[in-house]
Amino acid sequence: MIGVIATLKIKDGTAEAFEAAFRTLSAAVRANEPGNHCYQLTRSKSDPLTYKVLEIYADADALKAHGESAHFKAAGPALGASLNGRPDVEYLDGVI
Predict the structure, then answer these.
(1) What Cα–Cα distance (Å) separates residue 62 from each residue in 4, 20, 58, 89?
(2) What is the pTM of this model?
(3) Is 89 helix (H, G, I), strand (E, B) or coil?
(4) 36: Cβ–Cβ under 8 A, 6 or more apart, which residues?
(5) pLDDT, tens digit only, all 96 positions of the chain
(6) Which residues contact 85 (CB under 8 A, 6 or more apart)?
């Protein structure tokens, strides 16, 4: 298993558009990526402009397939329009 935590900071006033774009992406991930076990958008309680995506993949191939998927690439412009800087991505090894 491979875990990913992506921290995304968005521009003020873009939360609705950002969440709508992510909702479309997450539906496509769940429908088309059998190697993805979790793809959950969360929002910080202390900073409403900070989101974290919690992701779990079966293996490196599943993670690679996610990054190369048409739906992930298609979501880039819509999500990117809301971002306030580059995402901070942390990769984790599954333990239990």
Answers:
(1) 12, 24, 6, 17
(2) 0.94
(3) strand
(4) 29, 30, 55, 56, 57, 58, 62, 66
(5) 999 999 999 999 999 999 999 999 999 999 999 999 999 999 999 999 999 999 999 999 999 999 999 999 999 999 999 999 999 999 999 999
(6) 9
Cα(18)–Cα(12) distance, rounded to whole angstroms?
11
Cα 15 to the center of its chain, rounded Å: 15
Conformation bin of residue 74: beta by default, left when phi > 0, alpha when psi is -120 to 50 = alpha
d(CA 24, CA 61): 23
Alpha helix (H) ranges present in the chain? 15-32, 60-68, 70-80
